């Protein structure tokens, strides 16, 4: 029994969910359908059925399938941005920052809901509103990493942004590759390998005002 079905079973008949709770329920059902079927194959009928509601109820909250998809993207793009920012703020030790940031990406792709597929493997990237959100998550994660690099080194903002984009792209691509390889390497070990690779590169740039790494 899914979490949605458990919630429905536990609630007395005839009661109505508060609007926010209903919206979250619909988003959860939509995520399951979009991840399993992709945007184009998914139907509002499928989502309503998965949520256990009528189509009119679904349309009360989301005027169309694209609105529903974009709401999910907003939610899950923000989740990764906050995870990366949290990793960077979790320590002042730059070596540990690199590791924490790599782990944030691995945790994101490993989430059992598969939300990362909506962000990084969408079949709707030609839609401008979707492309805008996908670009935003990459850019904002890179900006967060860039802030640390620029503050700690003598590199310019533009140079720091290039390095930050490289680190973010490396983490995202390798984390997805790791997941698609059926996690043949344990996550802890995979994160450590990637963090070691990234640290050996970024540590080559000395701290601002210091000759030491």
TrEMBL record:
A Pfam family annotated for this UniProt entry: TetR_C_32
Keyword terms: DNA-binding, Transcription, Transcription regulation
Location of the HTH tetR-type domain: 20-80
Entry keyword annotation includes Membrane: no
InterPro entries: Homeodomain-like_sf, HTH-type_TetR-like_transc_reg, HTH_TetR, Tet_transcr_reg_TetR-rel_C_sf, TetR_C_32
Coiled-coil positions: none
GO biological process: negative regulation of DNA-templated transcription
Highest taxon in the source lineage: Bacteria
PANTHER family given in the database record: HTH-TYPE TRANSCRIPTIONAL REGULATOR RUTR, TRANSCRIPTIONAL REGULATORY PROTEIN (PROBABLY ASNC-FAMILY)-RELATED
The protein, known as: TetR/AcrR family transcriptional regulator
